[in-house]
Amino acid sequence: MPDLTQFVKAYDVRGVVPAQLNTTVARALGRAFAEIVALPDGAATVVVGYDMRPSSPELSAAFADGVAETGIDVIIIGLASTDQLYYASGALDLPGAMFTASHNPAQYNGIKMCRAGARPVGQDTGLAQVRDLAQTLLNNAATDGAAVAATDAAGRLGAVTHRDVLADYAAFLRSLVDLSGNRRLRVVVDAGNGMGGHTVPAVLETGAGLAELPLEVIPLYFELDGTFPNHEANPLEPENLRDLQRAVVEQGADIGLAFDGDADRCFVVDERGEPVSPSAITALVAAREIARAVAGGDDVSQVRIVHNVITSLAVPEIVTELGAVPVRTRVGHSFIKAEMASAAAVFGGEHSAHYYFRDFWFADTGMLAALHVLAALGESDAPLSVLGAAYERYAASGEINSTVADREAATTRALEWARAQGPVEIDTLDGTTVRHLGEPMWWFNVRASNTEPLLRLNVEAADAATMASIRDCVLGLLRQSAPAVPDAAAAPAQPSEEAASLEPWLREILRCPACREPLRDEAGPAGPELVCTSPECGLAYPIEGGIPVLLADLARKPV
Question: Ranges for the Alpha-D-phosphohexomutase alpha/beta/alpha domain (predicted)?
Answer without folding.
Answer: 8-125, 168-273, 285-394
